């Protein structure tokens, strides 16, 4: 999926999905086990290269570690890519 705006909207959606486990006490950890590899894979598809692979690993780990679902890893990667690094990937 190309385009800064599309990546931001998808990132917000994916961050929201990652935070859903807070709404389902008891089921949250099981959902995180399913979502973590999906989030890592999605991150590598949204952002190419070494940065995308690193962010994919971080997204995967962030979803698995307890209490870190609140971190918006997709949105932070978008900020890094388009505001800090000012890249076109």
What can you see in these coordinates?
This protein has helices at 4-19, 28-46, 49-64, 73-84. The protein has 89 residues and is mainly alpha-helical. The protein has one domain (4-20, 27-84). Helix 1 packs antiparallel against helix 2 (28-46), helix 1 (4-19) packs antiparallel against helix 4 (73-84) and helix 2 (28-46) packs antiparallel against helix 3 (49-64). The mean pLDDT is 89.
Give a nutshell description of this structure.
The protein has 89 residues and is an all-alpha fold.
Number of strands: 0
* Straight-line N-to-C gap: 10 Å
Identify low-pLDDT runs: none
Compute the CA-based radius of gyration. 13 Å
- Write the element-wise H/E pattern from the N-terminal end onward: HHHH
Task: Please tell me the total number of domains.
Answer: 1
The shape is elongated
Overall pLDDT, averaged?
89
Determine the fraction of residues in helical runs and give it as a percent range.
over 70%
Query: What is the number of helices?
Result: 4
Helix/strand class = mainly alpha
Biggest beta-sheet profile:
none
| Beta-strand content estimate | under 5%
Element layout with pairings:
Elements: H1 4-19, H2 28-46, H3 49-64, H4 73-84
List keywords for this structure.
mainly alpha, 89 residues, 0% strand
């Amino acid at each position: 999926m190309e385009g800064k705006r599309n990546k931001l909207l998808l990132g917000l959606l994916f961050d929201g999905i990652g935070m859903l486990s807070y709404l389902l006490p008891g089921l949250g950890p099981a959902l995180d086990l399913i979502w973590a590899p999906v989030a890592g894979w999605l991150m590598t598809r949204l952002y190419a290269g070494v940065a995308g692979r690193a962010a994919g690993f971080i997204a995967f780990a962030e979803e698995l570690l307890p209490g870190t679902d609140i971190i918006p890893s997709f949105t932070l990667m978008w900020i890094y890519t388009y505001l800090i690094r000012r890249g076109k990937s």
